[in-house]
Amino acid sequence: MRAVREGPPTVVFVGAGPRTVGLLERFAASAPELLGDQPVEIHVVDPYPAGGGRIWRREQSRLLWMNSMTSDVTIFTDESVECEGPIIPGPDLAGWVNGPGATILERAGLELPGPMDFPPRLVQAEYLSWVWERVVRDLPASVTTHLERAVELTADQRVILASGQEIHADLVVLALGYLDRLPTASEQAWVTEAAAAGLTYIPPGYTADVGLGGLLPGENVIVRGFGQAFIDLMVLLTEARGGWYDECDGILTYRPSGTEPILYVGSRRGVPYHAKLGYTVAGTKPVPTRYLTTAALAELGDGVLDFDRQVRPLIDKELAFAHYQQLFNAHSERTRWPWERFLAVLDGSLPDAPVFAAAVLEAVPDPVDRFVRSEVDRPLHGRFFADRTSFEKFLAELIEDDLLRRASPEYSADLAVFNALLSIYSVLSVAITEGRLSDEDRVRQVETEWHGFFSFVASGPPPRRLEELLALHRAGIVRFAGPDLEVAIDNDRFVARSSGVAGEIRAKAFVEARLPRPDVLASTDPLLRGLLADGTLAADELFAADGTSLGGGQLKADAQSRAIRADGTVHPALFLLGPSVSGSAGSSGFSRPHFNGPGFRQNDAVARNLLTLLAPAVRKEERHAS
């Protein structure tokens, strides 16, 4: 083993966002047990302030909202979390707002959100900042923050900062969030061609960081993407430019400032993400899957599974079960069969089997109570509109119906599907980490198609945002471009066409309203690029069966979150966590209270591993071995 330098052991965390905060909370919880009186130095390196990091920083528009309700977010463990370390309770976001956060938010000029509200991101920024300060007070260590970027990690564990400062580390944790990446070949071609034609092209990116000055008042802008990135874009180009909303008799009206462009928005589906559910139902929560289980996948044999043939049918069956179980048990007046009879048909078939389709027709009389995943996924499939006016009228009514349904517990089967999606995601994550899916299926089927469906159904905007979307449409600021939107350059204009709507849209600006696909091999981060180049870190370059490149995969880490080198060996003193790391749990969002979040469990295990490595007995053994 390598010799350990004299003096207090030092841990360097690169990244100061929520992941590091949560990991240090677990570090503080187990330190008295595992570290005793051993002194420790902790350094946290990030160009953005500790707590919120880049995404949840204070310096962003207060008009941008969270995608979760106040009551659905916590950074602290509770009695539901299954971990070795002690549970140290702390307030979830809703509790914090009504407790220590009230004064902080009032001082910042922010209203106090209710538990069912979708608060501004600045509220979460203040919460994370407060949690950071509490964690630092609880840590039995000196903590130094560095508001700059780490650019290199040497073989002898020196972390070199952009300023040239060097930190000698015993252990290093890379807890990097979403990474900036080089543009794809297609995106670079768009940049080049748009510049040559004098057009404005904005590639995929985090909307709050994108410069929007080139989108001019009154001019057409083609927008491809109808998810969260579009909602942020919509807010920043309307209300943030001085417009406002009036409400009379339940109808929202947008009052333009005159500085807004005209947004023509479309996507593959051609519809916005479903609104977040506006209700809760007692007793409905994620439960273990019934059909898509690790045991069921194991019964399919060893080796790599075929997603379309072996996995997708089980997903569809799982979603159908969740939907119909809630419908039959909570709204039996809208069904004709007893649940046990219907379940027997589902248990013995698949959702696309004729016998099951016949059972649905007989047992569920109203089509609005039926669930067909493909129809939920592509509500405009097979439709064609001969003119844009009729399409826009149809889509506006579709959004209005969605708002009514997502607000009504009479359709609590939707909530059951939402919870099932969370449980399915857990099983798919295990299948991926165990190598049961090919690279092609993981990228194209899970990370693209399945994650897209999950986001469409479960990660949509607050209902108010869709009400604003409709108000903007009535004001002529937002127009609907249609499904399967294709964009090209024709002389001095972008031209957009949809397979579902006749006609074309011409504009001098085009925005790709989405996050770039993660690809660590294309990361612009100098630290990661250096570690990948010298073999300290490893990541797969993924290829489809026909040899087509799928881009870079995630960084490789073992079950203890230790980095795997290019030669396959494990780095004993370098730990990896975050959305760009294989097997990193809880990277898709904040955990809900009383949910036994997988991110908490992983943070606890990693924190205890760090503490064990730092403990006096271990350090003494390392010195002896050296």
From TrEMBL:
Organism, as annotated = Kribbella sandramycini
UniProt-recorded name of the protein:
Putative NAD(P)/FAD-binding protein YdhS
Q: Which SUPFAM superfamilies match?
A: FAD/NAD(P)-binding domain (SSF51905)
Query: Cross-referenced InterPro entries, in alphabetical order?
Result: FAD/NAD-bd_sf, HpyO/CreE_NAD-binding, L-asp_N-monooxygenase_NS-form
Which positions fall inside the FAD-dependent urate hydroxylase HpyO/Asp monooxygenase CreE-like FAD/NAD(P)-binding domain?
12-178
Note the Pfam families from the entry. Answer: NAD_binding_9
Q: Which domain of life is it from?
A: Bacteria
Leader sequence residues: none
